[in-house]
Write a structure and sequence with these properties.
The protein is an all-alpha fold. It is built from 3 helices and no strands. It has one domain. Helix content is 65%, strand content 0%. It starts with 9 loop residues before the first helix and ends with a helix.
């Protein structure tokens, strides 16, 4: 387990603590649990964005479609 020291603005901190208190209660470790969940969600979102961006780049690259008479992928869709 790691320890991270963060500096965030006061209004964000107050709002986060209030939501944690309402959702998880005031038990020991609830703030850390919520922060871990928030970080995991952020990492998952950014990873999915990167995967989607990479997939779109692959789709947009021109491809040779073998021995058929199609020059590009767009030729197939213009029929």
């Amino acid at each position: 387990m790691a320890t991270i020291t963060l500096s965030i603005d006061d209004s964000t901190e107050r709002a986060f603590r209030e939501v944690v208190r309402r959702v998880l209660g005031e038990r020991k470790g609830s703030l850390g649990e919520a922060a871990t969940e928030a970080m995991n969600l952020w990492v998952r979102e950014k990873t999915q964005e990167a995967l989607a961006r990479d997939a779109l780049e692959l789709i947009e690259k021109p491809r040779r479609l073998g021995k058929r008479s199609y020059g590009s992928r767009s030729d197939l869709h213009d029929r």
